[in-house]
């Protein structure tokens, strides 16, 4: 009866997070609808005890009331079940099993932030509903994830010590301190977790993390595709190139795993393994949610949206096959040397990545207004330096930029990133031109360059667009020589074209 934390749902993520907590000395009680899963866990991984620990690290429970009876009060129960209706079903079952008003239920799934906002209100008085998004996949959950908590500030004091101990850690330079040894957790370093705000703040930030993840992955895939198409390198050679890039400004987990993937051979055929994988991308929805949320708030996040569309286009396998027989590109080669092309694409990837992160942070800036949160962007960048899928060296620079100026309007305006764009944008421009001439689809690269050029333009053709709207729909426009907010309408099709000022 003295467990510190309970788990409902012992699938891969639940089991691994529970084991991680146990490694850090917390006593964990676990329940799963599938009793075999609990027994299996108790018989295998949960059996090992860290040195000096006598009591079993985990208690298996056969019902939710048994789970509640095993926990110290206020009880903390982590729910790790599929997002959506199953989360509410578990909450209702826990209430029936005797959950109390001070108890804390933590949803660690990839829930939609609007559900988290709704649930916090709906369960008020019955128990405290808290959200914590987890990034880092199964290895992250087991040995140190990035944790993005949001919810009731009072509950945070109970969760903070546990979350800080199990989260990934980074050293004083912001580099992840990694372990893969059960029972020997990392106990030093700065934890990759911070309280992000009330209700859905944590799940929202994780959703944007995933939107950025989509963009980051798509940009890497485009860089690979462009190099392969222009230079004809084999995947393994491109893998080596990614390995080299991983030593520089592009240093990141996603570049590292890409280098590894590209150098693997299919054991069955001996062909590059990547070539044996069907080019039809899956998606569970978080990237799409990010794009929808950005669009609803009027935030330009084209790179993230293009990355969602690119996955959608990839699934049109049969249609693409048909179209490839009918639609032919008029291609033109490039006269750059191989080395120049490699450099251009490396710089293109870095610039486009900066733009994608700028968009992600813009989305969160808008969301904090929309939902009345006070997000700390420096903290967000800090907790993404380790544990999560988008961990990368340059997140330290993003954290620095927001520490220097919390109200930074756009990452592109910070000295560091403005300079980086200055020094390297030539690569992005070249990559886009070469792709267009060679007929290689690089939608995220195109979008990144268009975003950069659009954002830095004092004058855009939106004046003409406003005129068009006014012409066909009397939608009115503002004049450059009048007070902001004053509306004008021109009777475009009336002789003499009188201009009418409207209120
Ligand atoms: C993470 C990942 C994780 C998962 C994605 C995959 O941060 O650990 O983002 O949450 O891998 O949700 O999403 P898709 O299936 O949509 O690619």
UniProtKB/TrEMBL annotation:
<keyword id="KW-0570">Pentose shunt</keyword>
<dbReference type="InterPro" id="IPR008927">
    <property type="entry name" value="6-PGluconate_DH-like_C_sf"/>
</dbReference>
<keyword id="KW-0311">Gluconate utilization</keyword>
<dbReference type="InterPro" id="IPR036291">
    <property type="entry name" value="NAD(P)-bd_dom_sf"/>
</dbReference>
<keyword id="KW-0560">Oxidoreductase</keyword>
<feature type="binding site" description="in other chain">
    <location>
        <position position="311"/>
    </location>
    <ligand>
        <name>substrate</name>
    </ligand>
</feature>
<dbReference type="GO" id="GO:0004616">
    <property type="term" value="F:phosphogluconate dehydrogenase (decarboxylating) activity"/>
</dbReference>
<dbReference type="GO" id="GO:0050661">
    <property type="term" value="F:NADP binding"/>
</dbReference>
<feature type="active site" description="Proton donor">
    <location>
        <position position="213"/>
    </location>
</feature>
<dbReference type="InterPro" id="IPR006184">
    <property type="entry name" value="6PGdom_BS"/>
</dbReference>
<dbReference type="InterPro" id="IPR006114">
    <property type="entry name" value="6PGDH_C"/>
</dbReference>
<feature type="binding site" description="in other chain">
    <location>
        <position position="284"/>
    </location>
    <ligand>
        <name>substrate</name>
    </ligand>
</feature>
<dbReference type="Pfam" id="PF03446">
    <property type="entry name" value="NAD_binding_2"/>
</dbReference>
<feature type="domain" description="6-phosphogluconate dehydrogenase C-terminal">
    <location>
        <begin position="202"/>
        <end position="493"/>
    </location>
</feature>
<keyword id="KW-0521">NADP</keyword>
<dbReference type="InterPro" id="IPR006183">
    <property type="entry name" value="Pgluconate_DH"/>
</dbReference>
<comment type="pathway">
    <text>Carbohydrate degradation; pentose phosphate pathway; D-ribulose 5-phosphate from D-glucose 6-phosphate (oxidative stage): step 3/3.</text>
</comment>
<feature type="binding site">
    <location>
        <position position="475"/>
    </location>
    <ligand>
        <name>substrate</name>
    </ligand>
</feature>
<feature type="binding site">
    <location>
        <position position="469"/>
    </location>
    <ligand>
        <name>substrate</name>
    </ligand>
</feature>
<feature type="active site" description="Proton acceptor">
    <location>
        <position position="206"/>
    </location>
</feature>
<feature type="binding site" description="in other chain">
    <location>
        <begin position="135"/>
        <end position="137"/>
    </location>
    <ligand>
        <name>substrate</name>
    </ligand>
</feature>
<dbReference type="GO" id="GO:0006098">
    <property type="term" value="P:pentose-phosphate shunt"/>
</dbReference>
<dbReference type="Pfam" id="PF00393">
    <property type="entry name" value="6PGD"/>
</dbReference>
<dbReference type="InterPro" id="IPR006115">
    <property type="entry name" value="6PGDH_NADP-bd"/>
</dbReference>
<feature type="binding site" description="in other chain">
    <location>
        <position position="110"/>
    </location>
    <ligand>
        <name>substrate</name>
    </ligand>
</feature>
<feature type="binding site" description="in other chain">
    <location>
        <begin position="209"/>
        <end position="210"/>
    </location>
    <ligand>
        <name>substrate</name>
    </ligand>
</feature>
<comment type="function">
    <text>Catalyzes the oxidative decarboxylation of 6-phosphogluconate to ribulose 5-phosphate and CO(2), with concomitant reduction of NADP to NADPH.</text>
</comment>
<dbReference type="InterPro" id="IPR013328">
    <property type="entry name" value="6PGD_dom2"/>
</dbReference>
<feature type="binding site" description="in other chain">
    <location>
        <position position="214"/>
    </location>
    <ligand>
        <name>substrate</name>
    </ligand>
</feature>
<comment type="subunit">
    <text>Homodimer.</text>
</comment>
<protein>
    <recommendedName>
        <fullName>6-phosphogluconate dehydrogenase, decarboxylating</fullName>
        <ecNumber>1.1.1.44</ecNumber>
    </recommendedName>
</protein>
<comment type="similarity">
    <text>Belongs to the 6-phosphogluconate dehydrogenase family.</text>
</comment>
<dbReference type="GO" id="GO:0019521">
    <property type="term" value="P:D-gluconate metabolic process"/>
</dbReference>
<dbReference type="InterPro" id="IPR006113">
    <property type="entry name" value="6PGDH_Gnd/GntZ"/>
</dbReference>
């Amino acid at each position: 009866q003295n467990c510190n934390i309970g788990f409902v749902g012992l699938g891969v993520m639940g089991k691994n997070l529970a084991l991680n907590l146990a490694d850090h000395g917390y006593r964990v009680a676990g329940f799963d609808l599938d009793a075999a899963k609990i027994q299996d866990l108790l018989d295998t991984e949960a059996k090992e005890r860290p040195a000096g620990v006598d009591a079993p690290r985990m208690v298996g429970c056969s019902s939710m009331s048994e789970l509640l009876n095993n926990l110290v009060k206020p009880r903390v129960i982590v729910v790790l079940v599929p997002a959506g209706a199953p989360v509410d079903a578990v909450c209702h079952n826990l209430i029936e099993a005797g959950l109390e008003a001070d108890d804390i239920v933590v949803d660690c799934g990839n829930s939609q932030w609007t559900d988290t906002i709704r649930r916090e209100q709906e369960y008020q008085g019955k128990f405290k509903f808290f959200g914590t998004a987890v990034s880092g996949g199964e290895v992250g959950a087991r040995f140190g994830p990035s944790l993005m908590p949001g919810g009731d500030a009072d509950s945070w004091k109970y969760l903070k010590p546990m979350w800080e101990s199990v989260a990934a850690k980074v050293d004083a330079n912001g580099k992840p301190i990694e372990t893969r040894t059960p029972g020997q957790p990392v106990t030093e370093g700065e934890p990759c977790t911070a309280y992000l705000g009330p209700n859905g703040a944590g799940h929202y930030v994780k959703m944007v993390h995933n939107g950025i993840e989509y963009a980051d992955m798509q940009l890497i895939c485009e860089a690979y595709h462009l190099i392969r198409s222009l230079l004809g390198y084999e995947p393994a050679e491109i893998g080596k190139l990614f390995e080299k890039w991983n030593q520089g400004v592009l240093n990141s987990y996603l570049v590292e795993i890409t280098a590894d993937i590209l150098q693997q051979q299919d054991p069955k055929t001996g062909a590059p393994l990547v070539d044996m994988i069907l080019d039809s991308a899956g998606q569970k929805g978080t990237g799409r949610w990010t794009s929808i949320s950005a669009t609803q708030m009027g935030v330009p996040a084209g790179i993230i949206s293009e990355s969602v569309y690119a996955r959608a286009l990839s699934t049109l396998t049969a249609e693409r096959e048909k179209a490839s027989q009918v639609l032919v590109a008029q291609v033109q080669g490039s006269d750059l040397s191989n080395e120049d092309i490699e450099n251009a694409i490396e710089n293109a990837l870095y610039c486009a990545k900066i733009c994608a992160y700028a968009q992600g942070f813009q989305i969160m800036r808008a969301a904090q207004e929309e939902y009345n949160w006070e997000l700390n962007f420096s903290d967000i960048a800090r907790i993404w330096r380790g544990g999560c899928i988008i961990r990368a060296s340059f997140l330290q620079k993003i954290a620095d930029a927001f520490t220097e100026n919390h109200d930074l309007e756009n990452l592109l305006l910070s000295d560091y990133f403005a300079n980086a764009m200055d020094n390297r944008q030539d690569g992005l421009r070249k990559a886009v031109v070469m792709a267009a001439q060679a007929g290689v689809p690089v939608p995220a690269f195109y979008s990144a360059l268009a975003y950069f050029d659009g954002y830095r333009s004092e004058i855009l053709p939106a004046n003409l667009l406003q005129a068009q709207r006014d012409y066909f729909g009397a939608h009115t426009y503002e004049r450059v020589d009048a007070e902001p907010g004053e509306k004008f309408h021109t009777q475009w099709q009336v002789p003499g074209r009188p201009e009418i000022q409207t209120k």
